[in-house]
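Quick question: who can interpret this fold?

. . .
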Amino acid sequence: MAFLDPLGLVARFGIWKILTVVFALLNLKNMPFVWHLRVFTAFVTHLWIKPAPPPTPMTPATLFQPSIIQSRNSLMDCDFNIHKSNSTYFADLDVARSHLVPLLCGRGIAQMRKKFAAEEDKGRLGIILGGVHCSFRREIKPFQAFEIWSRLLTWDRKWIYVINHFVEKGAVQPKGFTLQPWRKVDNRKGKRKPEEMQPKQKATNGKEPPVTKSKIFASSIAKYVFKVGRRTIPPTQMLEVGGLVPPRPSNIDTPSYPSTPSNVPDSASHEPALAEMVQKLSSASTNEFIDASLKPDNPKGDVWDWQRIENERVRGMRIAELFGGLDALEGEFRGEDDMALGVYIDPA
């Protein structure tokens, strides 16, 4: 039986130790503190490490471009149905957003910290996650590789909204990589077999839906707020300081930020907000919202001036308003006003 173990590892370490190491390697992302390492690595990479040669700087033209990370569905990420468990999506989303947010706001954060230091403001600037929603479309099988495409969707007076798409690895290829010009695009990976091609159907807006939707496993949206103590830093200010949003022209009035259903006063009923959200999510408009989240509008020309960015921000608010409407669910907690079924034990 020596031919089964030519290196003598079984005799030296024992079969159970070897199996334990193999199991840990196959489920490395689920090991203790690995999640912390993945998130910490993202922040260190984009905020402190200076690559050489220096990359192309972030500009208004890159504001809505996605960042991409690659991962794989480990065995411990699977549930009873032998596919990626719904709860594990959020851990991967944390890592994906940890790459995008420093790319978008790293320069703005540095400038704001200098400003606060000059003003002797001892408050600490923080980025706080205010909410996450995820919609599941297709299963991710055990050990299947996938990518998470993350990009800025929009912002209002308080929140900045980020969207993520879980995509089959290699099924979609961007035209290029702005911050990594040395990375080549393999167009062969993006080609699909004839039987995988979807028939062309007209969406409700008259446009052909992108074929890439069939390669999306799940889509998510999250919102962040910038805080210094209890003070909120408007996202527009952060993006302008970071050089991603040009100054508003003097001949244009201050934009009116669409108010989301979450802005309904506490004393008012939440039912109108929920009814409005349900009405917007009609079957006739669902495809439009999905199409709008996949990529920003790309009219002819590569110049992203203030007006074009503002048009894209307003377009993205159509989806953000629906997400903000979910804040009204807090009013559905009945607490002491109703009976309960019982209290049950969780063995963990």
